[in-house]
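Interim report to the steering committee. The following record documents the input for HTH gntR-type domain-containing protein (231 residues).
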Amino acid sequence: MNRDPSEQFAKLGAAQRRTEEIYICLRDRICLLHYPPGTKLSESQLAKEFEVSRTPIRRALLRLELEHLAERRQGLQTVVTSFDFESVRDVYVIRMILEANLGSLSPAERWWERADQLRDIRERCQELLESRDLAKLGELHLRLQEAHADIIVNIRAREIVMQLYFQIARIWLSMVPRMNWEEEIELLIREIDDSLDAMHKRDIRALGQIRKEAIEHNITRMRAIMADSAG
């Protein structure tokens, strides 16, 4: 069934919405490296922070476990998982296949009218050429992914695309400090410009190809960083 994600969220009950909000907050903290690998996720501390019982915290942590962002260890302790490129190489392959076939994933009617989201992200990316803010870069990268995913109205397809992104988002962000900062920002801006051009032309195939090539370029740069580290 094709539904707008915001409409789907609005139909949840109050308790479900709160659990979803907590899950999204914890997921983003993990993917933006606010919670590095090995960080303990205490049910009691999180329940106190979010002012809820342990039940919604436990449910949110379970979702993080299912998505391989957290794991339960001995003593019923939940911690943020570690990550490395080789262990999720297949995830990159699947992402590229999905992006290249974006037009087959139930794009929204008049999907090209969502270009304003990308323009806003581009403007904020431009600011990063003057200020090295890794957390902000991670947030903008996530916003860009969400903006592209919002084109997909098939809720299950959108969830899969986002879940795959969250499994690997930390890897690129963790390597950015060893990359050329200005080059990374300029590449992101160029990707947005190319995407805006494809949206202006209403060419969904071109938009998908741009996303696929952006992932390929990220992989190439990350492999170069790993090779230098190994050398």
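The two ends are 50 Å apart (CA to CA). The committee is asked to note this result when reviewing the revised timeline.
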